[in-house]
Design a protein that fits this description.
Length: about 290
């Protein structure tokens, strides 16, 4: 049963990027169609193209703002331990979101009306911004909820790593400060992941992804925090966002800029910045030829 689940996740990984990019345009197209039909029915006394312009202009601006919401959801995640700090930030961000959305859709409507040989009346929209904001803040947080639930689902089928904690009773079986294993929770099950099996680590927002055999297990920690807890004889910092396991390093390619490119055994190429290149060179006992 576990094999079939893994196969399903690997299949999803192949078209995951396409799904994440294509979902929002499809969502707003469907939403615009339904809202447009309702709006035309609610305004039988005006040309039908006008309600469609209203709905389409709003959807286009909302779609353009989705990447900014994705960034905000990563930068200020709303969790039990962060909501008191990050919720006010989202509320402030939502005001800017609404200002851009409203001003942008008004501009699109004015352009569409001009093309049709008509004139769009702004009607001092800034005076009714409170009304528009109430609609936008609702959309803002619904999108945030959707993004959060999607990430939670991906983490559930992908697996999320955790550091082993001190036992309530008795001594720890292994060092907690420099763990030999990590606890991974996946599909409601837990298993231990040996630290030596981690091929490389990459910082990703508030997480560090542990890359093992083609899979990434997100660990909620900073890169600086996890670097000090790894075996310094095996793991080396090569970039502000990357730490590599020397056991899985296949090739080092120097670049004219002074940086380097690392080829891992799984054929993944990882950047090595000039700042960390000297330390990597010393690990191999090389002066300046790497």
């Amino acid at each position: 049963m576990e094999i079939s689940r893994d196969f399903s996740f690997e299949s999803f990984q192949r078209w995951r990027r396409l799904f994440e990019i294509g979902f929002w345009p499809m969502f707003f197209v469907v939403n615009t169609v339904f809202n447009g039909i309702i709006s035309v029915m609610d305004h039988p006394d005006i040309p039908p193209w006008q309600p469609w312009v209203w709905e389409a202009s709003s959807a286009i601006m909302m779609l353009m703002l989705v990447p900014a919401l994705v960034v905000a959801s990563r930068r200020w995640p709303i969790r039990f331990d962060t909501w008191q700090t990050n919720l006010p930030r989202h509320l402030i961000y939502s005001v800017l979101f609404s200002l851009i959305h409203v001003s942008g859709m008004m501009g699109l409507r004015k352009l569409a009306y001009a093309v049709a040989g008509d004139h769009y009346d702004f009607r001092s929209w800034w005076l009714i911004f409170g009304y528009e904001y109430l609609k936008d803040v609702r959309s803002y947080f619904w999108i945030m909820v959707g993004i959060g639930l999607y990430r939670l689902w991906v983490m559930r089928i992908q697996g999320e790593a955790r550091l082993l904690a001190e036992p309530d009773v008795g001594p720890a079986l292994e060092s907690v400060e420099q763990p030999e294993r990590f606890l991974v929770r996946k599909l409601g099950k837990e298993f231990l992941l040996a630290a030596r099996e981690i091929e490389w680590l990459q910082a990703s927002g508030n997480y560090v992804n542990l890359h093992v055999r083609g899979r990434d297990y997100p660990l909620r920690v900073t890169m600086a925090g996890i670097e000090t807890r790894l075996d310094a004889q095996r793991f080396v910092r090569v970039h502000r966002s990357y730490v590599v396991n020397l056991d899985f390093l296949a090739e080092i390619e120097p670049l004219d800029t002074g940086d380097a490119r690392l080829l891992m055994r799984d054929s993944v190429k990882i950047p090595c910045s000039r700042r960390y290149r000297a330390a990597l060179r010393e690990r191999f006992g090389q002066p300046s030829t790497i």
